[in-house]
């Protein structure tokens, strides 16, 4: 009878410690890891979009044609007093 009670108490403690281990350590760590992965992914997406827009702007400016013609003579501006 005494050995059965000791086994029961042992199993109760074991179940209790497993419960505490899972809900106080494993689950919070897994939530934190998933949040960190999501944050890193968002940061990488932002970096990619910034790099994409940075590479798009110079090419758009480079393809614009100048509005003035190069055949005209250059005339110095003289200030009238």
TrEMBL record:
Give UniProt keywords alphabetically: Membrane, Transmembrane, Transmembrane helix
Membrane listed as a keyword: yes
Composition skew (Low complexity), residue ranges: 44-70
Q: What are the start and end residues of every segment in region (Disordered)?
A: 40-72
Give TM regions: 6-27
Q: What is this protein called?
A: DUF4834 family protein
Organism listed in the record: Parasediminibacterium paludis
């Amino acid at each position: 009878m005494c050995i059965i009670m000791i086994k029961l108490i042992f199993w109760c403690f074991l179940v209790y410690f497993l419960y505490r281990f899972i809900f106080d350590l494993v689950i919070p760590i897994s939530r934190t890891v998933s949040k960190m992965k999501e944050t890193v992914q968002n940061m990488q997406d932002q970096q990619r979009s910034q790099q994409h827009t940075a590479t798009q702007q110079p090419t758009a400016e480079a393809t614009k044609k100048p509005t003035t013609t190069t055949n005209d003579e250059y005339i110095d501006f003289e200030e009238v007093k």
